[in-house]
């Protein structure tokens, strides 16, 4: 992934910073707004919340990197994304007027879906409303269809910002392809470059 200087790029803080919660009932309405926003604001900061790590791969691995990818793959395949946040800005770090961040809340059921208890405890302590995720959460396939036509993916001039983003993009690729992640890490990165041609990982750029 290319390195980048983030100079004046700044994410909004919490409070009255323009965060829009997106649930199943307002999903189409908010994507219609995002399709307008992305025409001017081409930088997208992304973060996800997911239910932790529940499995470890076994067997022989070519390298530490191969093990780390197989760890990511088996957990992304087993688990469901809970929340996705997208913050929009231009090349100078200026955010749109009004809402700057859209927080997508996915369908998740604590009685049916797998999770790591410590991760769920942390999310609950942060105020996540799991009952609402169960009742009004976004269906992954519907989200993927709207994301595909949003102007955010498969386009070179959209620049994605993330931090230590393997799992984040793993869950997004699973959503977009409606498939488990590929066994081969090289195929994963080919798919990543297809859907997200320009990615800047803050962790990579600062190491």
TrEMBL record:
Keyword Signal: no
Family from the record: Belongs to the CAF1 family.
This protein's UniProt keywords: Cytoplasm, Exonuclease, Hydrolase, Metal-binding, Nuclease, Nucleus, RNA-binding, Transcription, Transcription regulation
Name the record gives this protein: poly(A)-specific ribonuclease
EC number of this enzyme: 3.1.13.4
Location of the protein in the cell: Cytoplasm; Nucleus
Main location: cytoplasm
Keyword Hydrolase carried by entry: yes
Database matches in InterPro entries: CNOT7/CNOT8/Pop2, RNase_CAF1, RNaseH-like_sf, RNaseH_sf
Enzyme class name: hydrolase
The reaction(s) this protein catalyses: Exonucleolytic cleavage of poly(A) to 5'-AMP
GO cellular component, as recorded: CCR4-NOT complex; cytoplasm; nucleus
GO MF annotations, alphabetized: metal ion binding; poly(A)-specific ribonuclease activity; RNA binding
Superkingdom of the source species: Eukaryota
